[in-house]
Amino acid sequence: MKRTLQRSGLAIALLGIAFAFNTNTASADQRLLLINPGSGSSCHSHTCGIPKLGFYGRITCQGLRVTQVVRGSEAWRIGLEPGDVIVKIDNVRIHDEHDYRFAMRNAGRHIDLLVRDTRGRGLFWVHAHLDGGLYRR
After folding, report:
1. For 128, which DSSP code?
2. Tens digit of each residue's pLDDT (9 = 90 or more) over 1-33
3. What angle do CA 28, 94, 71 make, to 5 degrees?
4. Protein fold of 2-129
5. Domain ranges of the chain
């Protein structure tokens, strides 16, 4: 993660999601979203309470496009692949980072993701366990 953020230029951590902006070529809509991939990172008061899935993604007009999956994470276990688009989390349509944070903060120990498959197999629901993450109490 550190290497990725260093290459990206300016990095800002916000509510458990790290945004990396490439100051040379990226516009605001080309943000790289790091969805809590690692464990053991420091927890700041504004990042605690958001469960971890373990993937990188970009917000698009279609939803949250997965760009990389961390091996061994919950996202890896449920079969998310680069190119998949998360359209909904527990029936919350993902239009922006706020929608993602809202859905994850209101999640229990499990969530359901509506995913548009990268291989053209259509839309399907995936059930994810948030065992390794932080839970809302």
Report:
1. E
2. 444 433 333 333 323 333 333 333 334 443 444
3. 85
4. Pdz3 Domain (2.30.42)
5. 2-129
